[in-house]
Amino acid sequence: MRLSLVLSVCVVAVVGGKALAQSQYESSTDFAKYAMKLRENALLKIEPKVIMSPTKTVFSGDGPRYMTGPSLMGRGAELSGGPGRYSWKLGIVTTIFWIGERPSGNNPVPNDRSSWDKNWFYSYGGYDTPDPGGRRNFIPVNFVPRQNPFYFALPYNDVEGGHTKPEASQVIPWFKHAFARDGQTVLKGRWIAIRRGSRVCYAQWEDCGPFRTDHWQYVFGNERPRPNLNQGAGLDVSPAVRDYLGLGNKDATDWRFVEFREVPPGPWAMYGENNTFVLLRRQSNERFARRMFSKTESNE
To answer: Which domain holds residue 26?
Structure first.
């Protein structure tokens, strides 16, 4: 009876606050994750208050640009870590998700769109089937992905309601170098290393989750993932990552941020218009073509 009452209160809170929540969240995907967070808070009573000092704001161009203000209380020294100095997050429960995944019991969010791409399914090129029989060499057998099949999600989004979150400039180590304009994420496409046993895989950040999009204290600090309906999972990975590492669902892995120059060649370097390796190869080919064209003209 008590559990039913808690769930009823949660449903009323989600429905009654829908208009406000949708105005605050970047997409329906983020709103669904927000609704699931409300449910978890009611059931588990785990949501602590985050104490944060104010952030300075200045205006540049046509939108606000967030500058580093007073330091956040309790953040770890690793926030300022440079290349090769990002700490490993150890023993993180890791779940599998895929582009085109439909909602199910513990996954309320359809994955045909991401937190940053409302056309994610079409941008990728189709359904990234998790069925091993429908995959070969880490990609689906029936099409070549237009984006990197080695992708992941972490439970933080630096954009909310079309604007950069106030704390983003203080908690994201590469914010100063990557920030372009208000409302444009500096997270999408970042690389991490994922380790299980002696094998290490590399993947790019393409969505937010599992379940929440506000836990910077874990993603960039020293906190552990908060309890959720998937045994406290703190990392979602694609079928390609699963296959490379030999993961089952809810296995534990270690992960850390890496700079691109730390990423070795591998199957994660093969595909995708969003893939740093592919973009660099394309630029190199274009430079070579221009040189050859110039030589041809000079010989004529």
So the answer is: 2-299
